[in-house]
Amino acid sequence: MKLLPYLLLFTLFSLYLGSARAEIILSEPLGFNKITCPVNSDTIVGVPFRKEGSIKSTTSSAPLDVTGQAEWKEIPLNGITLTDGALSQHYLKFNSGTRDGRWYDITGNTTTSVTIDLNGDDLTGVDTGDALVIAEYWTLDTLFPPNEATTDWSEDAERIPNGHAIVASTGDYSFQLETLLLMPNNTDDGINRSASRICYIAGGNWKSDGEILGTTPLYPDTFFTIRHLSPVDHPTEYRSSGEVLTNNFSIPIHSLTSGSHDTFVSLPRPVDVTLNELNLFQSGAFVPSAGDYSFQLRDLLMVYDNTQILQNKSADVIYYHNGTNWMIPGEMESRDDDKIPAGSGFFIRKFQTESGETAFWTNTPSY
C-alpha cells in the first residue's frame, strides 16, 4: 500500500482598512490521503476526514427530554440558526465537557436546536457552554460518486476526486461484477462476523441485491472493505479529503457477558498513529493480559495488512497489552511504536465482561 497522508492548514486573513489592527480568522484545517487498492484483493479502509462544511456551536442550556422518546435528547444551541429539519444525514460530536469526543446521530432539528439518539449512552454532566460540532455523514454517493467510477483506464485519475477507487460493474449478475464494497456488521454480537451488505456500482447507482443504496451513511468510526474481483486488472487509488479532526474522538467498545466481541474501527486521523498514541490502553477501554498464553490473554488489537494480496483476509498482526507495553504473543520486545497507517481499518476483540459493559475509548490527536 502506498500511503501519502498530508495535513494542509489554511488560514483566512481578514484585514480591516483604516484600522491599526488586522483580524485573523482560522478556517478548518483540511487534509488529503490516498491508498492503493491492489487487484484480486481486499483493502480495508475508513475515512480519515470529516466532510467539509461542519458547523460549530455550544450548548445554550442543559439537554432537554423528548416526549415519548426516552433514548433521545434535545440539545439547545448558541449563536447559530439552522434550517428546520435539514440535518437528517448529520451527527453531533461534543468537543468539551463530560462527553468530550463522543458523537450521536441527529434525528431531527429546529432552527435553534438538534435532537440526538443516545443509543444506550447518557449525557450526565453535559451543561451550558459545552462545545460541539455538527457534521454531515459521508455516504456512498458523496465519497464514491457513481458517475466518477472507473470505466476506462485511459481516464485521468488525477482529475477524478475518488481516484478511480471503484470500478463500475456492467450489470447485477455475479459474472458482471467488478469492484465490491463490503459494509461491516456493526449490529450483531460475537467475532468473525460477515459483512452486512455487499454493494457495487451498476447502471449509475450504488446497489445491493437490486436495492439502491447511495444515501447509506458511512459512520466516522468504522471501516469498510474495497474488494477488486478478478475482472479488475489494474490497481486503483482510494483518495479522500476533508476537514481534519483536531479534537478528541471517542469510540464505544462493546463487550458481552459470554464470549468475545469484535468492534470494527477506523480512526479518523490523517496521519499514521503509533499503538501508544492510540490512547486505547490509557483510556481504560482496553483490558491488559496477564501473559501471552491463550488462557491469559484478554483484550486484543487486530491489525490488517493492506499490502497483502488476498480476499477475506484475517488480521495480519495480533497485539495485547501487558499493563506496560504493547506486545505480540511469543515476542519479548515492546511494540509501542508500531504504526497503524492513516485511513486503514482494524478491530478490537473485547474479552467478555461481567456486565457486558460498553467502554468508551477516547483518542487524543497526536498532531
How do you describe this structure in short?
The chain contains 1 helix and 29 strands.
Keywords:
1% helix, 6-stranded antiparallel β-sheet, Elongation Factor Tu (Ef-tu), domain 3, 7-stranded antiparallel β-sheet, 367 residues, mainly beta
Write structural notes for this entry.
- This protein has 367 residues and is mostly beta strands.
- The strands form 8 sheets. It has a 7-stranded antiparallel sheet, with no helix packed on it. It has a 6-stranded antiparallel sheet with strand order 5-19-14-15-16-17, with no helix packed on it.
- The radius of gyration is 22 Å and the shape is globular.
- Among the domains are: 34-50 and 139-242, no CATH class; 55-136, Elongation Factor Tu (Ef-tu), domain 3 (Beta Barrel).
- It has 1 helix and 29 strands.
- Mean pLDDT is 90; it is low at 1-26.
